[in-house]
Design goal:
With 304 residues, the chain is α/β, with parallel strands linked by helices. The protein contains 13 helices and seven strands. The chain has helices spanning 17-24, 41-48, 62-73, 88-97, 118-122, 147-153, 156-167, 172-185, 191-201, 213-224, 226-240, 254-266, 282-287; strands at 31-34, 52-57, 78-82, 107-113, 241-251, 270-272, 295-301. A seven-stranded mixed sheet has the order 3-2-1-4-5-7-6, with helices on both faces. Strand 2, helix 3 (62-73) and strand 3 (78-82) form a beta-alpha-beta unit. The two termini are 32 Å apart. The model is unreliable at 1-11 (pLDDT under 50).
């Protein structure tokens, strides 16, 4: 497969673009759902293949890119609904009730590009990135408790458990104790301060990743209940997809991939198409470093 050309107008490059189109069987007139719209990279690729797209995203900042695509392709081919993909069935029904043509047809494709988007990471004021200073926020929807609230209010044992469970961080207790000690001196309200606290608490020696990477991952997953939302949308996928429809999921760490693998295998409505996850080529990783940890799994809705 050769990768489709990437539109230089996009603020980010979609991950595994050719592979996603291949497994989705994207084509003219087919209705595809992009459950993680972001800046619209994958939606544009699907539209360029002639597919009609119903897109969802909980990030309010996705609306501008969505409006641009609707203006370019028309409301009969593209529709965006704000919301979390955990409510996918309800969002499709809501759009259909409004008379949206692209929400009133058999769904033949569902794409989920999980995790934090390049758009969110690149904006320091969103508080997702440990390499950029900004408010310690991490809320994709902009509502609910922020990461700063969690860091400020969670007891040390609960905080250690959170960092261990969602970040798979083996030094979670050490980091939690450091956070609790430091917050008593001065509130931890910025990404730079949290990254500094975690780095100073981390044991010495050589390491592959930034010391704060797993702690930031843990807080982001917890703040947005990402794993809970993933489990729910995977459970509902068999109801949303029409027989013969396909689902492609792109995950970026073992917690996500484990949930996806088990959900696809255990759902009798789905036939797994990828025995092993598909990874990006060295060439794509060079062009798009975000693809380094990506794993693609695909399944098809079968008739029962």
């Amino acid at each position: 497969m050769s990768a489709p050309e990437t539109d230089t107008r996009l603020p980010h490059v979609p991950v595994l673009p050719a592979e996603s189109l291949h497994w989705l069987l994207a084509g003219p007139g087919k209705l595809m759902i992009d459950g993680t719209f972001g800046a619209g990279g994958h939606s544009r690729l699907l539209l360029e293949q002639g597919a009609n797209v119903f897109a969802v995203d909980q990030d309010p900042r996705a609306l501008e890119a969505a409006q641009a695509l609707e203006h370019e392709y028309g409301a009969d081919r593209f529709r965006f609904e704000p919301g979390n993909f955990r409510d996918l069935g309800a969002l499709v029904a809501r759009a259909a009730a409004k008379g949206a043509p692209v929400a009133d047809a058999p769904v033949l494709g569902l794409l989920l590009d999980l995790g934090v988007s390049s758009m969110q990471l690149d904006e320091g004021e969103r508080g997702f990135a440990f390499r950029q200073d900004g408010p310690l926020d991490m809320r994709m929807s902009g509502s609910g408790p922020s990461a700063a609230d969690i860091v400020a209010e969670t007891e040390v044992e609960d905080l250690a458990a959170l960092i261990y469970r969602y970040g798979e961080e083996r030094h979670s207790r050490r980091i939690a104790r450091a956070i609790v000690a430091e917050r008593q001196v001065e509130p931890i309200s910025t990404t730079a301060r949290l990254a500094d606290v975690v780095t100073r608490a981390y044991p010495g020696g050589s390491r592959r990743d930034h010391p704060a990477r797993r702690t930031f991952q843990a807080l982001r997953l917890f703040v947005n209940d990402e794993l809970g939302a993933l489990e729910q949308v995977l459970d509902d996928a068999g109801d949303v997809l029409a027989p013969g429809g396909r689902m492609v999921v792109l995950s970026y760490h073992s917690l996500e991939d484990r949930i996806v693998k088990h959900a696809l295998r255990q759902d009798p409505r789905l036939e797994v198409l990828t025995r092993r996850p598909i990874s990006a080529t060295d060439e794509e990783i060079t062009d798009n470093p975000r693809a380094r940890s990506a794993k693609l799994r695909a399944a098809e809705r079968v008739s029962l």
